[in-house]
Structure formats: structure tokens, C-alpha cells
Design brief:
This protein has about 450 residues and is an alpha/beta fold. The protein contains 20 helices and 13 strands. The protein folds into three domains: about 230 residues, Rossmann fold (3-Layer(aba) Sandwich); about 100 residues, Tyrosyl-Transfer RNA Synthetase; about 80 residues, Roll (Structural Genomics Hypothetical 15.5 Kd Protein In mrcA-pckA Intergenic Region, Chain A). It is found in: Cytoplasm.
Length: about 450
Amino acid sequence: MENSPVTTNPALADQRNDPSFENIWQELQWRGLVHNSTDEAALEEALAGEPLTYYCGFDPTASSLHLGHLVQLLTMRRFQLAGHRPLALVGGSTGLIGDPRQSGERVLNTPEVVRGWAESLRRQIEHYIAFDGENPATMVNNLDWTEGISALEFLRDIGKYFRVGSMIKRDIVAKRLESEEGLSYTEFSYQILQGYDYLELFRRYGCTFQFGGSDQWGNITSGTELVRRVENVRAHALGTPLVTNADGTKFGKSEGNAIWLDSELCSPYTFYQFWLNTADADVVERLKVFTFRTREQIEDLAREVEQRPFAREAQRQLAWDVTSLVHGEEVTEKVIAASQALFGRGDITEIDEPTLRGAATELSVAEAVPGETTPVDLLVASGLVTSKSEARRTVTDGGAYINNITVDDGEAPVSDHAWLHGRYLVLRRGKRNLAMAVAQLTS
């Protein structure tokens, strides 16, 4: 996995760290990306000195990365822009085990599934960091150094450096040990595997710095301790905060579903709307973490939020920046045009089918039979009104629209040619109440 292709994402060429900061460490602190670390002064000095090699790991526990991973990918890029050399680790072996969860044992996926997911993650990671230039990234897979080692070798050569007393004190381990489910030795051993990664990357690449989410801090420091014990070398570590909303809720979840970076799992339309709907209380912090806008630019947008919150300029800039980075500017422009057209400010027939399909996931949807279903039926079935009598009044008052065209006759079946891409109708009541009808597919 080391021979990774050159990254072709054009957005990388425009990315810069903010020159108003003395060094990358100061910028990370301002952006709120420092939660915990090994010796802070020593790490800041190391990052301000000669280029160092660092790594961040991504376990293939699903087929796609999500917004939590995006924090780490952008942090990797910030360090790379500061002149340091990244190692992007895909956990082909740790993905077979899985780190302990807050509750319940992980389902162990087959090696074939994990291998496919690892390849999918590798392709995604290549989009966010550069694999060419003066300090190119390198892709690594920890299966390369664990697959051939025997259990006896692992226990003798690596396990002897770990103390059980320290391992069971780590928060997640302690919680699981006290739970009814308990903790299997399989998941308990995860921190040893991750510590071994750091040691191998030090030996192979001279890696002396690892970072990840603060929930991984125990696993991360298992590596710094192993490098110190075995090689007598100071290894550095950083834990970035878990991003939460101002109300304390977990960030990046919508009704229990992650906001994935894969457009097949989360449409660009849904992705853009997620950022556009960011609360005023959260948008400035999101700009700091998820964009490369400078301190001056973000402070200007912060004043916009304070003085003209109704304009939602900060949200629109945030949504543009992150969606363009993940899905490209062309797709983002289509999504914005579609958003406007859905509310009558553009040609709705120009919206492509994938974008309409994505919009359908954000709206109330009614299934319908082309040639049979009437506008009155659709208004009720979609939830835009509560009864047929209310639907008829809405039509009479001129407040019902199908594909942005005013409905004149609420009882006549919608003609076949009105269905966008043969399957969709955009329904609207008044100016802002949207829904969608989707044609039932016949077998």
C-alpha cells in the first residue's frame, strides 16, 4: 500500500496555513484542535524545528470515512503544509479487531470485508493530503507488519512491555470491565496493537509524532510509551477534541446516522444542507476546524453572525468550503442551484437525478402512481396538508405547486410528462413548505 498515486484534488493547491500565527502549534490552539498532548513545550518546539514524520490511523470498520475522520484528515494536511511528512495508516489488522466501544462487543467482520473497506478508505484518504511535492505523504497498512508475526513472538517481543495495571485503568477499558457485557481479550489487546504500530513506524520511517481523536488517547499513548521503553526515544502525541455542538450533543450525527464522506452513503445535497443548517452558536468553531480560512476571514464572518445572523453568510461559506473540498466545486454548484430551484428560484428541470434523489432524503416523501395520483392526494400523502379539504383550499388559494408550477386542478391526475427523470415530483405549499413525490416502480 506504500506506492500511492499523486493526489489529484485541485483544492489542495489553494490550501495554506495562516501566516499570522507564529507556528503551526499556535494555529492549532486557536482553531481548537488541541485537547491533550504529551509535553506541550517539547512538542511545539519539535513542530517548529526540522521536518518530522507523523502519522494518523484510520480503521476500516465501515466502507467510508465520516466527519469525525475529516477532522483528522484536515489536521494531517495542516501539518503537511507546515513542512512535516505524513504517514496515513489504514488499519488492515486493527480493523479486524476493533477498538473497544462504549458498550457491547464489536462484530468481527471477515478478512475479505475488512480488506475491501481498507481499499475504500485508502482511496478516500488520497483526496485530502498530497502524495507529491517536497514532503509527500505515504500510505501504510499495519497488516504489513502484523500478518507474519506469530502469537508467541508478539507476546514475547511486544506484550512484555505492557503493564496490565496501566491498561485496565484506561477509561473505556475500565467502563467496559464494570459493565454487564465485560470486555473480551480481543478488544483488550487493541491498545497493544496500536502501540506496536507506532514502534514499527518509528523503525521504518523515523516517525516520532502521532495524533488522533481524544477518545483514542489511551491507545495513542500506548505507542509513545512503547517507543520510549524499546528505543529510548521521546515520541510525541496529540489528541484532538471530539467536536460537539454548543448544546452538548454529538457532532456529525443526524437521527443516529453518520455524515459520510462517500456520496453514495450521503448525497452531496444532504452533505451541503448539513453544513448550511449549522447553528449560529456553532458556525464559527466549524469554520476554524473544517476550513482553511484565515483568522482574519473567520473573525469577519463571526461579526456577520453577530450583526446580520439572518443573512447566514458564515453558514453559506462553511457549506461551500467543506462541500467543495469533499465533492468538488462543480458538484457543489449543482447542489446550490438545485437548492434554489426547489424553492422556485431556478429551472427545476435542470436538476440532475442524483441531486433530486439526495433532496428526497431531506424531505417528506409520498409514493405515488403516475397517471393515477392527483395533486390533492399528493398534498395529503406528503404531509404538506392534513386533509383533502385543506388540500383543496390550498389549490383554490393558489398556494399549491408541482415542479414550481401552480396547480390549477387538484383533482386531475398528474400527467406522465411532469415527472422529473420519470420518477420525481417536487411539491410545495406556499413559499417554503417542500415535499417530494416518488413514483412507485412497477416490477
